[in-house]
Design a protein that fits this description.
By secondary structure, the chain is α/β, with parallel strands linked by helices. Helices cover 30% and strands 20% of the residues. Strands 2-3-5-6-7-8-9-10 form an 8-stranded mixed sheet.
Length: 300
């Protein structure tokens, strides 16, 4: 097998890391984002369907070696490189080579992925990563089969591996789709599983759906639905639950789990307050806040 997208990208951008979304990994830093085309899932609601369903190599106009990517990220003042837009699972060889070049340049690496990968593949890909945001698209096996073409248990295995067997900082995103994965029962099951199997410190982002790709018949997710989902997650013991694709102050603030002090305040993707120091502790009560709050060489 030969990776035909190696060295070619569907686009580059410099983003705030909060856009990935990662809220507990080097907040306020910039990330150099790129991806290729295609995907190993077939989500009917894909928000990047133009890229994920592309089959025409003419769409892949930008050529860049791993070393050029690392150099461009460094010039742009980024702290990390993100492998995103489509799933890095399907361009693992390119992503790993770029990640190694980024590490040589003193940069960190981030995978934005659906986590649909075998264990040997996961070891290759995530072995080169420092952080990941993984889509947990639903907690229904039938949803995964019928709407994405994948299997829930594969993603669950990837998440257990990342959280318990690696040092990759991991956050989750669930796109909440009206009428498909927004029932109280499913949200309760999903968030209980995260709390019990992965732990209460794993941040979970509930993101608003908008009509896209082959799912134009669903309405946008309401803020009330997202707030309900967040309430269920908090009640089930998750400490860091956020709302995305909407503006909601309460759903974007990082709060100390012990004393409830506001530690990181966000306005969209911008930080308006950041009180967590390199030691990763609440400045008011001293309790550790899960995450990576400064590059490791600065936190020592």
């Amino acid at each position: 097998m030969r990776l035909t997208t190696y060295g070619r990208s569907s686009g580059f951008a410099v983003d705030p890391i909060e856009k990935k979304p990662l809220y507990h990994f080097l907040p306020g830093s910039k990330v150099f984002s790129f991806g290729t085309a295609g995907c190993n899932l077939g989500c009917k609601f894909c928000q990047n369907w133009e890229i994920s369903t592309a089959r025409d190599m003419d769409l892949l106009m930008a050529k860049a070696t791993p070393e050029q990517i690392a150099a461009a990220a460094k010039r742009a003042g980024c702290a990390s490189v993100a492998y995103t837009y489509n799933d890095p699972v399907i361009f693992t060889e390119y992503a790993v080579d770029a990640a190694l070049a980024a590490r040589e340049a003193g940069l960190f690496n981030i995978a934005v992925s659906a986590g649909y990968i075998t264990r040997p593949g996961a070891e290759d890909l995530y072995g080169a990563m420092d952080a990941a945001n993984i889509d947990l698209k639903s907690f229904s096996p039938s949803f995964y089969r019928q709407v994405t073409g994948g299997r829930l248990e594969v993603v669950q295995d990837t998440l257990r591996y990342l959280v318990h067997e690696t040092d990759v900082w991991t956050e989750l995103t669930t796109l909440v789709i009206p009428g498909l994965n927004d029932s109280e029962q499913e949200l309760d099951q999903l968030t209980r599983w995260v709390a019990e199997e992965l732990g209460p410190d794993v941040p979970l982002h509930f993101s608003a759906f908008h009509p896209a790709a082959r799912m134009q018949d669903r309405p946008r997710t309401s803020l009330a639905t997202l707030r309900r989902a967040r309430g269920i997650a908090l009640a089930n013991g998750l400490r860091y639950v956020y709302l995305g694709n909407v503006w909601d102050r309460e759903g974007s603030v990082t709060i100390c789990s012990a004393c409830q002090a506001e530690l990181v305040v966000r306005d969209g993707y911008q930080l308006t307050k950041q009180r967590i120091g390199p030691d990763g502790r609440c400045p008011d009560c001293g309790v550790p806040v899960a995450g990576v709050w400064a590059p490791p060489h600065l936190a020592d």
